[in-house]
Amino acid sequence: MSIVFSASLRCQLPVLLLIFQGAFIAIFILFFSFEEPFSYLNTSNVTATAGEDDLDIFPLFKDVHIMLFAGLGLMLSFLRLYGFGGIAINFLIANFSIQWAMVVQGFFYHFKHWMIHLRLNNILEAEFAAVTALISAGAVLGRTSPVQLILLSALEIPLFVVNDWLVNKYFHILDIGGTVAIHIFSCYFGLGMSQILYQPSLQRGHKKETTTSNSDLLSLLGTIFLWIFWPSFNSVLAKNREAQHRAIVNTFLALSSGTMTTFAMSSLVDKRGRISLAHLQNASLAGGVAVGISADLISPGGALSIGCIASMACTLGFQYLSPFLAKKIKLQDQCGIHNLHGVPGIIGTIGSIVVILLEPIDTYGSSLHPILGVLGNTETWTSKGQALQQAAALGVTIGVSLFGGYITGLLMRLPCFFHPFREDFFDDQLYFQVPEDIENKWISNEKLQEHLLVPLKQI
Description:
The protein has 459 residues and is mainly alpha-helical. Helix content is 66%, strand content 2%.
């Protein structure tokens, strides 16, 4: 079987990547340097770390690294003929997004005296920005080209930086794990883009949009990687070691509670009591998403409760909400990012508002943002003020991300960018030199089905 590759893909992808990489090299040569001794000014919630020395965060940095490149990549490999696309294109987009985010964040936050001083923390900031592009890309997994995904990242990263500044600098949101700034933003950006890129033919399904036991096993392995290292993701931005300790413990408790709830709910919604791997691959992580915004504020019991509620909502979302949205508003969410990042993110934000209103301001000492001390003269007023800020940041983030997603989707539809044809959806062969054993297995299965159908037609 021979594949005829489009000349536009052969030209667009290499040229686009080489132009961007050349530009990054030039910008780093001209504007980036190391600074000694370190004198770094935190200007964003994303830049806050637990230690004064960047090497203090290196163990947590490595954990986030594994989540980005191994966890997310494996998790996206659940389609039987798009495993290379899930892992390798994730690898490509992550590297592009990190370099691009370092440039955008460098000029936005750290540009001083015509120079950007590079530290390990800059890369950590960029990796959090890259996560948003990777999550958003999950909504259109397998039905967009690498060229379109590079465009997605190029447009989403600057908007993420602006929204992150807005929710942290203007609204002073308490969001140690990026529940609003990362998960909710990336979710609704991806959903807005996906709605613009709606494919009517996919309403009836696609013959390649299936999984195998091996692909689901790889995806589950990616989920476990994310599950193990999620406490590092939620705690690396903590302002002190006490808050970091609470965030690590609470994140683990939320994940553990969510996992048990996922097994229970998945079995409950199935007529034969079987467990869905799609539920397990996603809902077991919902607790980590939801607890991120208040991981350093809540009690252990609160963490267990949030994890349970978030995973329950995620499971029900896959079972009932996704089909409903696909039918009513033509929303095609390939990886179910709304169920894993959107719904748990909203639940977590509501939970943070409840915690702020119910808990005394000084319950956990300095973990609360200093803005609480200047919003008013009474403890009740400051709690209400911060709660309103949490809600306002949530609403603004959803609005900004949806608008950005719609604009990005419209640009991705332009005919000047390479688009895969419907028959090439969810298939590695358009982008990779697929080993013969996989290709031949697909062909043999096709021929076997044809041979089986011949006698039936004759009957």
